[in-house]
Specification:
The chain is mostly beta strands and 409 residues long. It has 1 helix and 31 strands.
Length: 409
């Protein structure tokens, strides 16, 4: 393990919430050291009493009185007959929405109200399906701890829940923004050691913090030890399936090239949000692509076609490439109705993403599925646009709603 170098004077601004709107004061934390990528430096927090591996009582059927779900026929048509599942958070709870081969939506409350460190209701965030759709990894609080793997089991079915940090029964450690990563015949959960606003350090020439991993064993349990990944910084947007590219944002958007061992800062280091790496297969041409939300204003954003564009807060979904160019855009589905997007996430299928669209003058929003289009092997040079939108959930969602979509392969 290499020695640590002192960090430059000045605090790193970071947030308890997912992404900070302009004008609000950041929460400041003390300076942190310049950390080498092979250093396992994990801050320790309060004790958690969660069992490391347990079977929970059955989930229950749920209803959301302020939400109307799209019909099964429309959903099947949009997805070409594929089965889909949606996990989302709302009002500190987590739900599973399932559309089968026939019939309408089935909604289950799958959180148990004990996801915080003290085993009370937490602030669940960043839920992500495993590639087969059978499990969900998530963080129990906005601080990124504790982290869990939960069976994606609907109403009436018990579910196994596994604590990511086995040592958490004594003193838990940060496991923010957990992501599934497959490497050969092994499955890992990668996670960041910092939550909140993490900005590129010119002094350290890297993103602060660390990205670590824990192995998910064939039994479904997790290994007892966290391991280093060699990724220099707290990367919060996931890893490409060819394991070459790692992405982050909140605040600096950056891609780390694991082959060249280089950090590529995007958008001039301006604050951006909600990073989501593509789920393209390892053989795809553009495994560097990452989806983000931008804060708008100046400077203008550089498009792949040579143009530049300005926008307001979160007005478009953008996909960046390794050359710091925007290759794809999803405008708001109705620019007269919706003020901005929030919490976009690329689905397990490369052709779809989900996001909340918030209505103007209201904190209320609708849940959209965006059809991205064929990007993964496309020739670069033109700005691609979203091909279609499905308003799968009408009303009742807010800016704190995280979503992830599993689509049958």
């Amino acid at each position: 393990m290499k020695a640590l170098r002192p960090f430059a004077l000045g605090a790193i601004a970071w947030l308890i919430s997912a992404c900070q709107d302009p004008g609000s004061a950041p929460v400041l934390v003390p300076d942190v050291p310049c950390q080498d990528a092979d250093s396992l430096l994990l801050p320790r927090f309060s004790v958690t009493r969660h069992p490391k591996d347990t079977v929970l009582p059955p989930a229950v059927t749920a209803t959301l009185p302020n939400t109307v779900w799209e019909t099964g026929d429309s959903v099947r048509s949009f997805f070409g007959g594929k089965r889909v599942k949606l996990v989302f958070t709302l009002n500190r709870k987590m739900y599973l929405l399932e559309y089968g081969a026939t019939g309408g939506a089935s909604l289950s409350l799958i959180s148990r109200g004990d996801e915080s460190l003290g085993m009370t209701e937490g602030s669940i965030n960043s839920p992500l399906f495993s590639p087969d759709g059978n499990k969900i990894v998530f963080a129990g609080t906005t601080r990124g701890l504790p982290g869990f793997i939960l069976d994606a089991a609907g109403a009436g079915l018990p579910a196994r829940r596994v604590l990511l940090d086995h040592r958490g029964t004594n003193r838990t450690r940060m496991s923010a923004d957990p992501h599934w990563v497959t490497d050969g015949d092994k499955t890992w959960i990668y996670f960041a050691s910092l939550s909140g606003l993490v900005s590129y350090s010119a002094n350290c020439q890297r993103i602060p913090g660390g990205t670590y991993k824990v192995e998910v064993l064939p039994s479904g349990a997790v290994d007892t030890a966290f391991q280093v990944t060699g990724i220099p910084g707290a990367y919060r947007g996931g890893v490409s399936k060819d394991l070459k590219w790692v992405g982050t944002s909140y605040a600096t958007s950056a891609l780390y090239d694991q082959t060249e061992k280089s950090t590529l800062v995007l958008a001039g280091g301006e604050q951006q949000c909600n990073p989501s790496m593509n789920p393209y297969p390892p053989t795809a041409l553009h495994t560097d692509y990452m989806m983000i939300l931008a804060f708008g204003g100046e400077p203008a954003y550089n498009l792949i076609n040579g143009d530049s564009v300005t926008e307001g807060l979160h007005e478009n979904l953008w996909i960046y490439n390794k050359n710091n160019k925007i290759v794809w855009r999803a405008k708001r589905p109705d620019e007269n109705l919706y003020e901005r997007y929030d919490k976009p996430e690329w689905s397990t299928h490369w052709d779809y993403a989900t996001a909340i669209a918030l209505r103007k003058g209201s904190g209320d929003g609708d849940l959209y599925v965006v059809k991205i289009g064929d990007l993964m092997n496309a020739e670069e040079g033109k700005l691609n646009e979203a091909e279609a939108y499905l308003k799968i959930g009408i009303g009742g969602f807010d800016s704190d709603t995280y979503t992830h979509l599993w689509v049958e392969p």
